[in-house]
Amino acid sequence: EMKQSPYPEKGEEDEENPTVLVETWDNTASWLTRAGICWFYGVTCHHRPGTPLTETTYNDNNGVTSLRLMKNNLQGTLPKEIFTGLPDLRILELQENNLVGSLPTEIGNIQKIEYLKLENNFFSSTVPTEIGLLGRLEHLEMGNNDFSGSLPDELGELKQLTAMGIFNSNLVGTVPSSLGKLVNLRQLYLDSNGLSGSIPATLAALTDLADVRLRRNALSGAIPSEIGNLKSLNVLYFDANELTGTIPSTLNKLDNLRELSLYKNKLTGRLPDLNSLSQLTHCYIDHNALTGFFPSWTLPELKHLFAYNNKLSGKFPALDGMPNLVKLRLDGNALTGTVGDEVGDLDALKELVMNSNKIGGTVPASLGNLLNLEKLMIHQNEVTGSVPDEVCALTKDRVLGEVVADCDSGGIECACCTECY
Questions:
Q1: Phi, psi for 101 (deg, rounded to 5)
Q2: pLDDT of residue 8
Q3: What is the per-residue pLDDT for 332?
Q4: CB atoms within 10 A of CB 29
Q5: Please, are residues 340 and 360 in contact by the beta-carbon 8 Å criterion?
Q6: For 229, what's the count of Cα atoms within 13 Å in the CB-facing half-sphere?
Q7: What pLDDT score does 60 carry?
């Protein structure tokens, strides 16, 4: 839910008397005194040639290079004079305040700006197109605001940009294809908006991109196969959209990828070979319509594998290629076969959830070796026999606190189950 400002909009009295607003700040040191602008809290000036090194009390604006008033309980609207009267400004950090209203179109005047941080405020209206004039900008962070409208194409002119974050800010429209011109970009956070349309293939040109988050939007269409060109990628979050088609086999080229999150989409087809992703630690592909057999993956660093609520079939997968698994969820598929003894070798395993499949056989006694196991859910399958004493011992001596099996329906005997089906 979008936060609402607890403060009223600035009134006429405040417009005429800036002291009313400044007095609400957490730190007002030297503001509205004769100390000189460069002594004000949050203000930094550069040294001007021809003056003593200790001289920073001059009271004009030309020397201000940094204005950093984050977390300072600023209220009201953003005065356009910041953008028209500080031509040397390199850093503007006003994040985590209670600023409201629109961003002035004069924002395009601060053409020496390198860091612009306005996140966690209550700014509304649209992102001004004039922001594309800030050709030296390296960091643009404006997430958690109340913007409206779409992302301007002019963002593609910010050729020095290394980080862009405009998440959770009510944005609609498409992801501009012009973002493919931001060749220095390393972080792109546009998550939790209302963005629609397809993921532009032009993003594949961002070969320095390490972290891309487009999750929790309304994006549709296929995942571009060109994404496989992003060789620097560590984090890829495309979850909670309306993406269709298959998981591109080109993802296997992302050999620096550590986190892959594609859950809650409408993806279909078979799981691709991902064996080149030797650094992958988290893989979330649940809540799709994926089909076919589970491939034999060798992912030595994988800790979380969530593939539940799909349409996967075939035998319960071999897990010996994923020795560091901590959480495994395969529930809600159509898997068959049996659980192999090698599962007992997954020393780090805390959660083994495989209910609601067609798995048969018996529960292997080797699961008693899983001394870190906290959750075991094997119900709504075709497993028979009994839950071995070695497994039940984990409920007494270790941390296993949740064991669920088909012990009410007579399919299996279980002396230590916390819930029976």
A1: 80, -170
A2: 32
A3: 98
A4: 11
A5: no
A6: 11
A7: 57
